[in-house]
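We emphasize that the prediction below concerns an isolated chain of 565 residues; any contacts that depend on oligomerization or on bound cofactors are therefore not represented. The input was used exactly as deposited, without trimming of termini.
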Amino acid sequence: MRRLMKLLLVLLLLVPLLSRPASAGNTAQAVLTDSKTYFNGEEQSLYGFNIAGSNYYSLRDIAKQLSGTASKFDVTWNKQQNAVEIITGQAYTPEASPNSTYYSRSKKYIASLSTSKILVDGKQQQITAYTIDGSNYFQLRDLSGKIPFDIEYDNQANQISVFSKLPDNAYRVKTAFGAKDNGETSDFPRWKSPVTSYLVNNQDQTVSVIEANKEITIETYNEKYELIASNKLDYELPLFGGFYSGGKYNYIVFGQENTEENNDKEVIRIVRYDKSFNRIDSVSVKGGESYTIEPFEAGSGRMAEYGDTLVLHTARKRYTTPDGLNHQSQLTIMVNTSTMKVTNDLGRFQKNHVSHSFDQYVLFDGSAQVLVDHGDAYPRSVVLSKGDGNSYSKVDLFAIPGAIGANATGVSIGGFEMSSGSYIVAMNSVDHSAVTEYTSYEMVGLETDQRDILLSVLPKSSMSSASVQHITLAKYVGTDKIASIPKLVKISDDRLMVLWQEFDKKGNPGDLKYVYIDESGQATGGVQTLAHFALSETNPILVGDKIVWYINNKGSRLFYSIPLK
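Result of the prediction step, given as a token string:
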């Protein structure tokens, strides 16, 4: 028994010796790691070293990669205390003469155990570090809880992924089908295309992400933003035209080209599903009845419902005219959902005709359709049409200068909502007084396409352009920033929110901005700022007492929320 106890004691004394890296004193052999390293979804070519089975990375390389994120930190040398100082939340200061040493994968290097103190925000930390050629190398997991940032390791792919810390009310989530980028940008397209990513409030403390990318994918998340269900559907026709979550049913629009101008060819199909996405039925539109060769061309396409009436307000390229051209215009389709039959005339020139129509919105005010189009010719304006499908009243909400049919307008619409007393369009606009000519491609005279954030507000009581009020929420023309196309979210009949993303002139994203407005479009407080938040193509929605949306960025999906004040 005594001999057994002695043996156990010897083994216990050997354990710490066996666990140390093979070294001569305070040095160890180091070889370049073969692990791939990603920072916020992007692969970075960093020199990392494998020392005794663990990967170590240069502290300055990590600081550089996290620069500008919520995990930014600076690195300084404190000579008095013989300490490497890490200051979190502070912008990284690059070295005056950065290390440009080349390292070979076939060579072994000597790593010296660092004798310097490691201070994080002035507090000494027990972190093992090695020095190679004058640079300090650390294990990412030792730093992750102290900077902080998140780290994931995929053993199968031999991949290390580092993610900057998320701000409050932001959540990184899992996906079932990948995450195709859908972030807002500082670019302003001359015309829109169908929205391909949607967020739906299921009214049961869950939300669903609906995306169209060669197939329809549905991913459902609980109140903690945990992925709890997924499903996918095949396209029924080659083109996607839009999605709508109605009161009882979901609707998806598909289409196909008809360049041969075949009157009997199906060009648009509106498919109805139950709320679990089980197919119920559909209604079709043919080429001859709609004069369509390309459905959804140069437009967005949105839907709304009232009782048994569903309206799809979209765009099309039309049959060849005697002048040999194929003109683009809006296309408005009314469907009786009790019979799934089209009930309005789809001819070449509808009663609410807009040509060209580069963006489309639709709401119901009672039984009346209220449509908004971004026109560049007939009319050349942001135009609102209100009617029953047989007749409409039209109001120019924002007249656009320039030649009829010049595709460059300097205007983009971001949202259309209805308050208790007004129709409100969120949009942006250049300084038109600085434009000398509008062409099909550009606005001559502008050095930078900068646009102010504004609202066009029409009182419900007056269908007159003289009653329209233009309200500027934020000015960007002439500044060092660019603002994205704004988003508009209805909170109640008397309260809404406008959101937009800032960018620098190189297109790098900055802060998110938002402001509350009342039923007349007047701001009810100052513009608020959220750092490290990002908008996407997806329109934010109201979920309980929060505004919620998501973004796909560099392979990851993030949810953001703004608690309502």
